[in-house]
Amino acid sequence: MRIAAVIAALAALAVLPQLISPYYVTLVLPAFAYGIALLGFNLLFGYTGLLSFGHALFVAVGAYSAAVLTAKLGVKSLEAIMLVSALAAVLVAIPVGLLSVRYVRIFFGILTLAFGMLFHSFLFKFYNLTGGDTGLRVLRPSLFGFAFPNLDKTSFLVGPFYYYCLGLLAVMGLVMWRVVGSPFGLQLTAIRENRRKAEYLGVRARLFCMIAFAISAFYCAIGGVILAVNTGQADPDLAYWTHSGELVFMTVLGGFAHFFGPLVGAFAYVFLKSQLMSVTEYWRFVMGAILVVIVVVLPRGLIGIAHDAWAKVKRS
Amino acid sequence: MGQGETLVTALVETVDVAKAYGDFVALDGLSLSVSEGELVSIVGPNGAGKTTLVNVLTGLLRPTRGIVRFKGDDIAGIGPVRLAERGMARAFQLVHIFPALTVAETIGVAVVSQSGKGLRLFRSVRRDAHVMQRVRGVAAIFGLEGKLDTQARLLSQGEKKLLDIASAFALAPDVILLDEPTSGVSSADKHGIMRTLIEAAHRAGVKAIILVEHDMDLVAEYSSRIVALQAGKVLADRPPAAFFSDPALIAAVVGKMPVKAAKAA
Fold first, then answer.
1. Contact A225, A237 (CB under 8 A)
2. Which among A33, A183, A242, B214 is least buried, having the fewest CB atoms inside 10 angstroms?
3. What whole-number distance in Å separates Cα of residue B192 and Cα of residue A147?
């Protein structure tokens, strides 16, 4: 049943560009990017119980690495760009994680928030390196060595790039599925449930939290590369703390207690935001109200609603 | 080498251990040893230092003075993870469970860490036949085999207690430290849990049990030796018969005779 739903969702996303206008297709691209980033983010939040308010830092590391690699170093291969960017994020994650995972709950959150803000001001102040408030351009990469020179920007994005990202999401989702079902994933949930007890059962809590932190940074950076290629821009706003807040929002909206929750949240958030922004300038207010409703009434998020609805259908 | 002999026979040993929190002295020159085949009960009134002793014995607290050894190695302050790796497990006074994990998952946490599989990132734990077989085996010892897929939070209080202890047993420890294993359990169930525990210890190859217990009926029934603490010192260290034949000693520890011991006397 679960596999059937996943295949159906992938098939629907595969035929989507034939059914809707290119504008809506370009909306799906950031949802792919956030979907990948949140798979990693939720390994830390949903599975390990560590809520970071600074993970936009790693999304930004991915985006800026893509900018430097394409525009300054002339690297065109998207595969190479993603690999290098993600490893750069892991390198940043090691010192940040080593300091942060010693703490839990609000202390962990505040510390990650502080590191995120530190990186944001770095992007702002070091103009020569980072382009300051204007950011850096990101050039169009090649996909598996194909540059698609005869496609214009939109055709490239809604055509080959769209399917590339869909495939990437599927592969990275599958890998994460393996991780959460592994002995490692089991021990992360034990740490979330009761760290002290887990330690008495031989779980090396700090090491495992550190590895989960590095994996989450890896995924967030890949998401950042996709975002940057989509907009052609690495922007300091990517590292701003409100962007970290958006990652948390999407995860809660979709449902952090479920593997697929963050993916649902990414798509729902991106779509909701674009609809609300076209209707009212007070879209942030409406988003805030939605978050309140979710937390108070539906703590299991959208996926929780779907779950209950499906259970009702099965019973009747 | 006179000390060499004690190193061989004693599994767990403290020599002149002291622990102070600021001005407050919780342990004050405490020496005890636990050898293979023993079930040593640690008793004493509240504030006698039992909890501090447990935390020192399990490597959680580093003593201010003195030596703590496990299987001949210094374990002062090494922390719970490395202690588990060396073969000492602990079950808690207050039930420590993983509420959202199932019975199988809870025991599985201990099994994968004990078998050194914790860092496997991409292989399914549910499809690991060796792990699952061991999980079912441990669950069966504690009568939890019918509840493998039940979340821990949905278990009865007694079952939670058993699961907590079962997960500690799943580490296949040489020594297990039980901190009031029957607290919060109805008195009718207490002996059942204790018998399950001792039976499980036999089957799991546990070499010694350290029991911290208030309930003198349990202490009288199951201990091979009783260590009474008072104000951070060892007040008495005797087999049960000698312990319960000394009314002054019992009064100092609990203030009254246990029913069973009173009947026997």
1. no
2. A242
3. 72
In what side-by-side order are the strands of the sheet with B225-230? B88-91, B175-179, B208-212, B39-43, B225-230, B233-238
Burial class (CB in 10 A: 0-12, 13-18, 19+), B23: exposed
Asked if residues B34 and B54 have their Cβ atoms less than 8 Å apart, the reply is no
- pTM of the complete model: 0.87
What are the residue ranges spanned by the domains of chain A?
23-240
Q: Please state the separation of Cα A118 from the chain's center in Å.
A: 20
Q: What is the ipTM of this complex?
A: 0.84
Percent of chain A that is helix, strand, coil (3-state, to 5) = 80, 5, 20
Q: Are A216 and A40 in contact (CB under 8 A)?
A: yes
| Cross-chain residue pair A203–B122, CB shorter than 8 Å | no
Q: Six-digit token pair at A214?
A: 């590095």
Partners of B112 on chain A (C-beta within 8 Å) are: 183, 186-187
Contact B11, B205 (CB under 8 A): no
Give the largest CA-CA distance in chain A.
64
d(CA A138, nearest CA chain B) in Å? 33
Closest-CA distance of chain A to residue B193, Å: 20
Q: Encoding tokens for residue A25?
A: 């297709």
Task: Identify the H or E element spanning A169.
Answer: helix A162-180
- A133/B contact by beta carbon, under 8 A: no
Contact indicator for A93, A58 with CB cutoff of 8 Å? yes
Query: Quick one: CA torsion of A243, A247, A249, A253, rounded to 10 degrees?
Result: 150
Q: Between chains, do B97 and A187 touch, taking CB under 8 Å as contact?
A: no
Domains of chain B: 2-95+174-264 (3.40.50.300)
Distance CA A171, CA A222 (A): 12
Distance CA A2, CA A7 (A): 9
Mutation target among B85, B95, B112, B135 for the A interface, most CBs of A within 10 A: B112
Sorted by sequence, the CB contacts under 8 Å of residue A112 that are 6+ apart come out as: A52, A53, A54, A55, A57, A96, A100, A244
Question: The tokens 């079902």 sit on which residue?
Answer: A181
Summarize pLDDT for B99-129 with one digit per residue, the tens: 999 999 999 999 998 888 878 888 888 888 8
The residues pairing with B62 across neighbouring beta strands, listed in sequence order, are none
Helix ranges (H only) for chain B are 2-9, 50-57, 80-86, 103-114, 129-141, 157-169, 187-204, 216-222, 240-244, 247-253, 259-264
Q: What does the pLDDT look like over B23-75, one tens digit per residue?
A: 888 888 889 999 998 999 999 888 888 889 988 998 888 999 999 999 988 98
